[in-house]
Design a protein that fits this description.
Two copies of one chain form a homodimer. The first copy, chain A, is elongated, with a radius of gyration of 21 Å. Chain A has helices spanning about 15-25, 40-50, 75-85, 100-110, 150-165, 175-195, 210-215, 220-230, 230-255, 260-275, and strands at about 5-10, 30-35, 55, 65-70, 90-95, 115-120, 140-145, 165-170. The first copy, chain A, contains ten helices and eight strands. Chain A is of the alpha/beta class and about 280 residues long. Chain A folds into two domains: about 5-170, 3-Layer(aba) Sandwich (Rossmann fold); about 175-275, 6-phosphogluconate dehydrogenase C-terminal fold (Orthogonal Bundle). In chain A, helix 9 runs antiparallel to helix 10. Helices cover about 50% and strands about 15% of the residues of chain A. Chain A has an eight-stranded mixed beta sheet with strand order 3-2-1-4-5-6-7-8, with helices on both faces. Chains A and B meet through helix 6, helix 7, helix 8, helix 9 and helix 10 of A and helix 6, helix 7, helix 8, helix 9 and helix 10 of B.
Chain lengths: ~280, ~280
């Protein structure tokens, strides 16, 4: 079922490009135009079939029924005024950024039909070479409407995500950012710190434990420093909670307090089993 | 090539049982006897073919040419005097514990032909149900001889691990414990703290990032509290280094210092790429 005649995806990296593939696979879009600051990335996306045409400038949005902002956070915000000025009146604009408060407050002020989205998909891999239409299957996509969001827009975008295999959860932008600080941004911060603390000469004796725990520290640096900074206050709160846990374990260890140690580990383990 | 007529494996869990399977697959052992405090585990191990016979008590070691201690650390140490008293004079004894200083100092004092081993294999899964002969293929096994270790014993055990697919690294017990504090014990401690700090109500919005980062916190509690306590001092040193990294990131974040943030993340990322 074609939902949109023309879709413009800005940023044809892992999420943007995979969205193109998924939209085309489900025949939800007539024509998909992809814009990337890395022309090579956009060309690969076209070759793979994720987009029909490479757009060379933001001008392309003028014919769009749906614009998908899939660049790092700062660019989403930078591009917004120009996009707002160029789109058709009824064009829907969504983003796929990892933090929502800042993006939603800026973009919904400029674009009436804007809806913030955050697909919990993707990986530490980036670029067009890793695109796959099925990346959203079985994943969760969080939509963050405001009081101003029209129900018809929310429903249309919900349908889009469900059609490509995601389960939709609706949250306010600030609740989204509070939760994701714990479930995504803190784990990334910790993974970077963990690998950073391992002396170089020890690395060759690492096992799957260190590898899994730090996998996400192979993620894109610029993307993640923007995420950390744009969710700074919630992330600092989450970090405090983590430091408290760490101190509890440290005290038990210092005191050779096996009972406390086992109690803390056991509570943690029970929680882990809930996300199997 | 049969290296040992009779092998006794004490502890038929993931590592002990998989060792049994691997030894039999490579025809390195004549008869393999497995002893487990969980009789059910030992019976499954026999059914799978990891052992030929279930041993009901430590008496079984009296006929062994090789005894493999594959229980949690405390039991390795507890069983040592009885094993020392019962084995044949030329019997080789190895263990597969995750810390080495304490085990090697106790056991090498009691058993002349003792050699500490630590295969960097295994996972958060435990029990006989997850046994596989190939778990050691492509893995690293660390051997921790002392000045008293006979070269012939070291060579024989090195050959055994290489034969079942592991690359052997030789380290002193204290160097082993210093390194593993960083590459294995710290990641486990951090994973337990990380999942422990996530509020329950946030868990359902976790993505692969949190799942991977905390996978090892599903590991056995008693096993890991013993590992933490037996490598306490090195682990506290590693924890300090980690806390320093964390504070650096926290300060950059507090100060909205994008440049420092990117520099720290970039150093971490480069290190991560070395363990791909």
């Amino acid at each position: 079922m074609r939902m949109f005649n023309q879709v413009v995806i800005i940023g044809t990296g892992l999420i943007g490009g995979s969205l193109g593939l998924a939209l085309k696979k489900q025949r939800l879009a007539g024509k998909v135009i992809g814009i990337s600051r890395h022309l090579r990335n956009a060309k690969i996306a076209k070759k793979i079939g994720a987009i029909d045409k490479v757009g060379l400038s933001l001008e392309a949005v003028s014919g769009a029924d749906l614009v998908i902002l899939a660049t790092p956070i700062d660019k989403i915000i930078d591009f917004a005024p120009e996009i707002a000025a160029k789109i058709k009146k009824d064009c829907i604009v969504i983003d796929v950024g990892s933090t929502k408060e800042r993006i939603v407050s800026r973009l919904s002020a400029l674009i009436p039909n804007f809806l913030g989205c955050h697909p919990l998909a993707g990986s530490e891999k980036k670029g067009a070479i890793n695109l796959e239409a099925d990346i959203f299957k079985g994943s969760v996509c969080i939509l963050t409407p405001t009081v101003k969001t029209k129900p018809v827009i929310l429903n249309k975008i919900r349908f889009l995500w469900e059609k490509i295999g995601a389960s939709v959860v609706v949250l306010s932008p600030d609740r989204h950012d509070q939760i994701l600080a714990f479930t995504s941004h803190l784990p990334h911060l910790v993974a970077f710190s963990l690998i950073g603390s391992v002396p170089d000469k020890c690395l060759k004796l690492s096992s799957t434990g260190l590898r899994d725990t730090t996998r996400i520290s192979a993620s894109d640096i610029k993307l993640w420093s923007q995420i950390f900074l744009s969710n700074r206050s919630n992330l600092l709160t989450a970090l405090l909670a983590f430091e408290k846990e760490l101190v509890d374990l440290k005290i038990a260890l210092k005191n050779k307090d096996k009972k406390s140690l086992e109690r803390i580990l056991s509570l943690a383990q029970k929680k882990r089993k809930k996300i199997e």
